Amino acid sequence: MDPKNMKRNIKEMVNKAANFLMMVFNLLLVEKFYKINKKINKFDFNLSIRLAYVFAGFLLILIVISDNVIADPTLGCLQPYIISDSTNVSQNQFFSFSSGIKCVCDDCGDVTAILDPETYSKHVTSSENHTTYYFSEPHIKKEDKYDVVTLPEADEFDIPGEPILPFKTAKILIPYGEHINSINVIAGDKLYLGKNFSIEHGQMSVPLSFKGTIELTPPNQSIYNSAEEYPGKLYSQVSVQEMRGYKILILNLYPVHYIPKTGELYYYKNMGVLIDTQQILTLSSEPTSFRGLPKDENKVIGIVDNPQIIDTYTGNSVGNITAIGSIPLQISLNPLESYNYVIITNNELKNAKGNYTFQDLVEWKNRKGVKTTIVTVEEIMNNSAYHCDGTFGDGCAILEFNDTAAHIRNFIKDAYQNWGIEYVLLGGDGDYANVGGESGNNIIPTRRLWADSVDWDVGDLIPSDLYYAALDGNWNNNLNEKWGEPGEDDLYAEVYIGRAPVDSAQEVSNFVKKTIAYEGSEPKKEAWMIGEYLGFGGIADYGGSYKDEIISGSTNNGYTTVGFPGDYNVSTLYDRDWPGHNWPKSEIISIINNNTHIINHLGHGSTLSAMKLCNAPIYQSGSYCGTSRNRDIDNLTNDEYVFIYSQTCYAGAFDNWNHDAGRYTKSDSIAEHLVTSEHGAFAVIMNSRYGWGKFHSTDAPSQKFDRQFWDAVFGKNITNIGKANQDSKEDNIGGITDPKIRWVYYETNLLGDPETSLVEHFVRKGTIPMFNGTPFHTNSQNPRYSANLSCLKNMQKNNTCTLTWQVNATGKMGTTWKFFTIYNSTVVSSNETQMDLEMCVTTVSIY
Ligand SMILES: [Ca+2]
Ligand SMILES: [Ca+2]
Ligand SMILES: [Ca+2]
Ligand SMILES: [Ca+2]
Q1: What is the total count of domains within the chain?
Q2: Is residue 435 part of a domain?
Q3: Which ligand does the CA of 607 lie closest to?
């Protein structure tokens, strides 16, 4: 064994041992919890513990408790309370945090309490075909003349003219080899919240390059004068999606209902989703992306609300895969080889003789332990296995399906299936027309997907590398000119994708040099929020107001996203706050030239411009800044490279389409120059078409993806850029019924290396740790069990227990956090079979 492998194996063994110890510790706690509660003896529990997720030292155990006997209809309920609504605390000083629990209805048994800032609790229980969702009471807040209703961990549907209400996206795994006969959503207890509420109506999404006058949508009178409940349904079915061979049903649940005429509001405390499924008897001609790998299973467990169904996909069903449901992929690559990462480029660029080459990137990745190889477009095109014949589910009825993009995607499917790849770098530009200048023939073509008709021209065809990442289906079932219409989409990716939009040896060298330099450095904990004047009215007048939601996270518009950790130095450059409301471009140039690490931007843009910068080396009439011969990007001088995430329009149009001119530009887009020039960025995520804002609101389509991107990086520890970009999409999967969400889903492409990690070391937020940690730690016992706090033990009806933690606020000044105290009891309420789970929330601000 070579020493490198040995080192890795030892590291893996140590990791496994640590995981195992953690598992044993957790199992002991669970077992103890179970034994104590069994003594309550009101009914008989079945307890099954499943080790669900062991990955990178993070472990989660799913506990499924079900009762064998119909429970006594009068069992205990937990009623949490908080001592104060919000608290201001001083940095690096201890403060007391208190909350309490009251046992009502009947006896509650032993209770546990966990203090937990801003962590995500799913609030879901499930048994075989039945998944139940629990909703805490909606927050109703007066803003101007409207009442704003939000639910923690629910998104909001925002249809122009219609009331804005929360929805929760349910993700339900369909048992292997089965299809859905019927879906039943059963509403639980209905709670009246009061009357005379005035719920605001939704506004239109607007392209971020829009500079006209605001046209506000009035309330839809037929809805607002109606005495009927809105939305008038409990759920809507979004889609059935496939992820690595696992079929997932996507539903949106509507727990809050509104009667506009009387202003009455109701909500359902819980909703049960019952699916009836039946075995598929006829053989499908569609191949499957099922590999049966533990990492695929872990990924699915992390997504779906009913993970116990996962067992139907393992064991015997792997062997049955040809018998029911689907056929396996043809094997063209040697399955005895395995790679994490493949670079696809052409012969010329593979053999380019710049200072840095793709070969250097391969060696670098391999040294890091990411097994990497190169495959050329020529090799793919010369391999008849990838020709269009339906083997790979590519469809074949029309010539367009047999193009280079289809062949490349077939190769990626093969490499995914037989090599086990996780990352793909498309090593070449995807210009769409050879109009001279830098816009030559494409090296790796782009597939352009369709979401909505906005401009009725090429601008409606969205260059999307999601096509190469999401490998199920063929993306165009009805064989028309529109790819990726609803029902043709594959929204869960099988591999993570990035593009190096290079055309020459020099550009390959620049891209590889910057990628290796960044990955080899310790990233600075520093970021800039860049906002421009938008003029969309109210809070939407300035990009800075959108960016503020990203700095330290936000619960605005219903959903929660985590922001930059407290030890990051986040600065702002906002037109909103700048004297005269228009910062000069010299500011952004000096930020980049001073070697900043991260830029997050919202403002106007076009193919050749972004962040008030212009890059148009070739004279191009009709395009914004096209006649300037400006080279703001090519002239940058930084030698530590930046990552830029921008919501702006068209800056990432790597097919070179220019909306202003109505033609392809001769010079490459500004995003391409950022990553292929000598300095500037090592990676950017920018839109290939319009970014989407919203009149009078920050609940805009592009903002949802931006917030979820940083939430992936800092909230979920998904730090590889390609993975985080995909995660930001999958978190918006329920919103895909809005064509503008679909638009953004397709257009947010990564120009950069998908495997590059944005953060090297990261402390995961979650339960407040004891004795040290940031942004908070506590000197008190956490979690607290009946064993270490007697008032939590065997709680009787009307007993209360107030808990206090001594907490040190070590996080950044000016940040505000939601504090959750999660109380668990094993005593169930009347007709439900779940662990009772209640929580209370307050906010803590550090000053
Ligand atoms: Ca998929
Ligand atoms: Ca080009
Ligand atoms: Ca179509
Ligand atoms: Ca290009």
Answers
A1: 3
A2: no
A3: 4
Ligand nearest to the backbone CA of 400: 3
Give which of 552, 422, 564, 521 is closest to 760, Cα–Cα: 521
How many angstroms is it from 325 CA to the middle of ligand 4? Answer: 41
Cα 442 to averaged position of ligand 2 atoms, centre (Å): 7
Q: Which of 354-358, 529-533, 672-676, 770-774 has the lowest mean pLDDT?
A: 770-774
Least confident of 190-204, 518-532, 540-554, 776-790: 776-790
The reply to whether 374 falls in a domain is no
Residues 48 and 141 grouped into a single domain: no
**What is the amino acid identity at position 429?**
D
- 424 C-alpha to ligand 1 centroid (Å): 15
Which residues are bridge partners to 527 per DSSP?
A: 570, 598
Shortest-distance ligand to the CA of residue 434 = 2
- Residues 4 and 51 both lie in one domain: yes
Residue 232 has pLDDT above 80, yes or no: yes
**How far apart, in whole angstroms, are the C-alpha atoms of residue 536 and residue 699?**
12
Taking a C-beta distance cutoff of 8 angstroms, is the pair 317, 177 a contact? yes
Which ligand minimizes its atom distance to the CA of 451?
3
Confidence class for position 501, pLDDT limits 50, 70, 90 = very high
CATH of the domain at 812: 2.60.40.10
Instruction: Provide the CATH number for the domain around residue 281.
Output: 2.60.40.3800
Ligand number, closest to the Cα atom of 300? 1
Residue 336: CB partners within 8 Å, gap ≥ 6? none
Q: What is the mean pLDDT of residues 813-820?
A: 63
Work out the number of other CB atoms within 10 angstroms of the CB of residue 147: 19
Confidence check: pLDDT of 95 > 70: yes
Note down the domain range covering 7.
1-69
CA of 489 to the centre of ligand 3 (A): 9
Pairing of strands 642-646, 681-687: parallel
List, in sequence order, every residue forming a beta bridge with 191; answer none if it has no partner. Answer: 267
Question: Does residue 147 sit in the same domain as residue 37?
Answer: no
Instruction: Tell me, in angstroms, the distance from the centre of ligand 4 to residue 486's CA.
Output: 28
